[in-house]
Write a structure and sequence with these properties.
Layout lengths: L18 E6 L5 H11 L4 E6 L4 E6 L19 H4 L15 E5 L2 H10 L9
Helix pairs in contact: 1-3
């Protein structure tokens, strides 16, 4: 059944065209957490755990093919990743919060570890 409440790409803020998200292994060691601190020390980089419990690095960067009005310059020749993007699973249309945990900077990581000492599960 079609969900008529879904926003069309032309109705959203093209969030999927403004970042690259790469799945990574769950951090379990002190070294893993130090890597996350290093990653979020960079501009336009976030580390998240999404609502499916997947850990990801999100690079906030616009697609080079995004017009100023938010339309795609190469829509008819866009990559398969774009063609296969599921509008029901996008940040705008998905149910609930997409980000379960989000780290914008080193302070966010340190605060999380102070509140969740069990996040370090393995010795190095």
């Amino acid at each position: 059944m079609e969900n008529n409440n879904l926003k069309k790409c032309s109705e959203c803020k093209q969030e999927c065209c403004k970042s690259v998200i790469v799945e990574v292994d769950e951090p379990t060691t002190i070294g893993d957490w130090e890597d996350i601190k290093w990653q979020v020390a960079h501009k336009n980089v976030k580390v998240i755990r999404d609502n499916e419990k997947d850990w990801c690095i999100e690079f906030l960067t616009n697609c080079n093919n995004l017009n100023k009005d938010g339309t795609c310059k190469i829509y008819s020749k866009r990559p398969v990743m774009c063609k296969n993007h599921d509008s029901e699973a996008c940040v705008i249309n998905g149910e609930g919060d997409y980000y379960e945990i989000i780290f914008h900077n080193i302070g966010d990581v340190e605060k999380y570890l102070a509140e969740h000492p069990d996040a370090i599960k393995e010795a190095e």
